[in-house]
Write a structure and sequence with these properties.
alpha+beta, Beta-Lactamase, Alpha-Beta Plaits, TIM Barrel, 3 domains, 8-stranded mixed barrel, 6-stranded antiparallel sheet, 28 strands
């Protein structure tokens, strides 16, 4: 073996043995390290969850103890008599009520209100105070007085877990099963500890720049449903502020290190936080502390077994590599000069053939080689060997070119070619036809099951992010499939049919594949007919119309707005659904004048109903016009209405779009005063970061979730989670597609702000709105 052969042998040995061995060792190390880190993270997450639950229990305990203190101190007979007396004995009340509540139950402020809610006694920080001191806290606590009097109800229609309101005894809260956590419903029981006949409202409240526990109690020993006692009895009101003493007690009992309160909810390094909210979900402040985490202990305990496993794998790889080295060296010595000469000649011939039939950028077969291979395969298909032609077009490739430049685009094409080649077998052909268009000839994949498996692998591979010149790019691929001999054996005809299927895939959302069917040819003709008739309808105004579906306030049942829905009555085909003609309008450039026409109709209705908001759906294609935002603003301005009355509904794709034209249009519309609603929330990416960036005003829960309420095991939990998320971000939440009373009841209790669906009203022309509104008023009055 000469020196050159020895060098080649070492290279092959490194490539075939040492490199795979190193890769296996690396993967083993990554798996061991990743497993340790994941175990530590899981332990830390459980620790954080447990400590946050302890914080919430501490707040609940503070509320229950304050109410229990009022029960024991303020509901004795003499105390009730003094509270009802025209001239109460302030010294006696100081000693037996105000000061005792401070000493025993940490109540910083205690007030007594007479039957007409006027203050007759006040104690502040264990000092007697004038009754007028109540005026400082009255605005914040008045709603709790109304709850005890029975003059108001909570938005959820029932007492919380720490109080007992008139006609609403505390009841357990039952949550649906959470898949992966528990198969049984979760029940949270009330913790109220007062006597069954004691009526009180207990909650957390914000007073000035401080957060406090508040409890308002009826000073009467009477049955809970005694409305006369509820309406005319004095009230005992106590406040305990969340101060350093509360934090110290909570930290000592629940192991919270360096606990503190913060209104900004901005944890320092090493801190975590828990929100402090009232029973209605309003954020008041946050408690921050340094959590005790057990992840490091878990990692330390598992480190030795993981290291031992790694050493065992390394030893096995070493032994195998030594044996393989001996075997490869023996094979190398048997090679001769004839083989090397033959290899040189073959390489030269292959190079010349490659240059004639392969793409320069990617090295893939070009159109000429693909054509030759397709003709040969189709000849075999005529004798019963099935095959398929796949046409592929990259999604969002233009965005990569626009954002990172053409060099990045070329690099992306090369990366895509490499991934496609790794998926497709040796007998099959992957070719680049030009630009971002590829073609695949599947000779072995003639059966539908094999083809679908290959298609799924292609989609999965190209959905993974690409590292391009130091940047990360995301693209997808749309695929059209034509089968032979089912749909012919002529190459040009099959290519045309695959192209039709490709465009159907793009029409139906991209990043998917579609098989050609005969109905697609018919649909192409139908779309051409629809385009011509739609142009005519836009020119004459005949057949087009806008219907309006009422939006119902969930709390009061009133109509707060209308959603504008486009309708087209075709002279031959009757009512054409929007999902058929809107894509035609988007493809043919008709969406811009069609959208402007709908906006003008909606503005006319908005002017006729100035107290109602009008929701208008926008197509993502409309945002591609540079002057789209200015044109919409001009239509609203010419109509003489405020942009605040118009709510623009966009899909998640618009919010997530990285194109600067789209993002700029959305930003200018919001600056002009239009409100933005995110339609069909939950069916796409549902990105929280983009919700924050674009300051969306409303999210609309897709009707597919609403229709599954009470049927699918996860629908209830998903809807509740979306409502909670929306309210936590300060957004209004609308549920569409409400069709049953059970759905309405659930959505109201979940906290949805606005409801929409056939249960309330179907979409109707503008001239029927007045009659529908009068009908709703008569029903409400009845």
């Amino acid at each position: 073996m000469n020196a050159g052969s020895k060098i080649d042998f070492r290279r092959r040995y490194r490539r075939r043995v040492l490199l795979p061995g190193a890769v296996i060792l690396l993967i083993t190390a990554i798996l061991c390290g990743g497993g340790l880190i994941q175990a530590g993270k899981g332990t830390d997450e459980l620790s954080l969850m447990a400590q946050k639950l302890e914080v919430f229990r501490a707040l609940g305990k503070a509320m229950d103890e304050l109410a229990l203190g009022q029960d024991s101190v303020g509901l004795c007979e003499q105390c009730i008599e003094e509270a009802a007396s025209p001239v109460p004995d302030r010294n006696w009340l100081d000693a037996n009520v105000g000061f005792r509540m401070f000493d025993l139950y940490n109540a910083h402020e205690t007030y007594i209100l007479d039957g007409r809610d006027r203050p007759v006694y006040a104690s502040v920080s264990r000092e007697s105070a004038a009754p007028e001191a109540f005026g400082r806290v009255a605005p914040a606590v008045s709603r709790f007085v109304e709850l005890v009097r029975g003059e108001a109800k909570r938005p959820m229609g029932r007492s919380n877990l720490n109080e007992r309101l008139p006609g609403s005894p505390p009841e357990p809260l039952v949550f649906p099963p959470a898949p992966g956590f528990s198969d049984e419903p979760l029940t949270v029981h009330p913790t109220v500890r007062t006597a069954p006949d004691v009526i009180h409202s207990t909650d957390l409240v914000r007073i000035g720049d401080r957060t406090a526990v508040v409890s308002v109690m009826r000073m009467a020993r009477a049955p809970a449903d005694d409305h006369r006692a509820t309406a005319g009895s004095p009230l005992l009101l106590s406040l305990r502020y969340l101060d350093e003493r509360f934090l110290s007690d909570a930290a000592q009992q629940n192991y919270l290190i360096d606990a503190r309160l913060s209104d900004s909810n901005e944890p320092r390094e090493g801190e975590t936080s828990a929100p402090v909210t009232d029973a209605d979900g309003n954020l008041l402040t946050s408690i921050l502390w340094k959590p005790l985490l057990g992840g490091g202990v878990v990692i330390h305990g598992l480190l030795l077994p993981a290291a031992a496993m790694f050493l065992v794998v390394a030893l096995l790889i070493l032994l195998m590599s030594l044996k393989l080295r001996r075997a490869m060296k023996q094979d190398e010595e048997r090679a001769g000069e004839l083989e090397r000469a033959h290899a040189e000649l073959t390489a030269k011939e292959a190079q010349a053939h490659h240059l004639a039939y392969h793409d320069v950028l990617t090295g893939l077969p070009n159109r000429a080689l693909f054509t030759d291979n397709a003709d040969k395969a189709l000849l075999r298909a005529r004798h019963g060997e099935p095959m398929a032609i796949l046409l592929l077009d990259l999604d969002r490739f233009k965005n990569v070119n626009d954002r990172f430049g053409h060099l990045a685009g070329d690099e992306l094409i090369r990366e895509v070619a490499g991934r496609l080649s790794s998926v497709i077998g040796g007998r099959d052909t992957v070719a680049r036809l030009g630009g971002d268009e590829f073609a695949i000839l599947l000779e072995r994949g003639g059966r539908a099951g094999e083809i679908e498996a290959t298609l799924e692998r292609i989609l999965t591979e190209l959905r993974q992010p690409f590292q391009i010149l130091g940047n990360q790019a995301h693209v997808g691929v749309s695929i059209g499939v034509a089968l032979a001999p089912e749909f012919g054996t002529d190459r040009m005809e099959l290519m045309r049919k695959a192209d039709i299927a490709l465009y159907r895939a793009k029409d139906e959302g991209r990043d998917c594949y579609r098989y050609f069917t005969e109905t697609m040819d018919e649909s192409v003709q139908l779309r051409a007919t629809l385009e011509a008739h739609l142009r005519e309808a836009l020119a004459t105004g005949e057949g087009l119309g806008v219907h309006y579906q009422p939006l119902i306030d969930s709390a009061g049942g009133k109509v707060t707005g209308l959603e504008a829905l486009l309708r087209w009555e075709h002279p031959e085909h009757g009512c054409v659904p929007p999902h058929m003609f809107v894509p035609v309008a988007e493809e043919t450039g008709l969406i811009a004048p069609l959208g402007d026409w709908v906006m003008k109709q909606a503005c006319a209705v908005a002017r006729a109903w100035p107290k109602l908001s009008i929701a208008v759906n926008l197509s993502p294609v409309q945002f591609c016009d540079e002057d789209f935002a200015e044109r919409i603003s001009g239509i609203v301005r010419d109509a003489g209405i405020s942009p605040h009355q118009i709510e623009l509904e966009v899909t998640e794709g618009v919010v997530l779009d990285q194109n600067e034209t789209v993002r700029g249009a959305l930003r200018r519309l919001r600056e002009a005063g239009f409100r933005i609603a995110l339609d069909d929330f939950g069916t796409g990416y549902s990105s929280l970061s983009y919700l924050r960036e674009f300051e969306v005003d409303r999210i609309k829960i897709d009707k597919s979730f609403v229709q599954n309420l009470g049927q699918a095991i996860d629908a209830d939990a998903i809807v509740t989670a979306v409502v909670t998320l929306g309210h936590a971000m300060g957004l209004q939440v609308t549920a569409e597609g409400v069709e049953t009373d059970a759905q309405e009841t659930f959505l109201r209790s979940a906290g949805c702000n606005v409801l929409q669906g056939f249960l309330f009203a179907k979409a109707m022309p503008a001239n029927e709105l007045a009659g529908s509104m009068d009908g709703r008023k008569r029903v409400a009055a009845a």
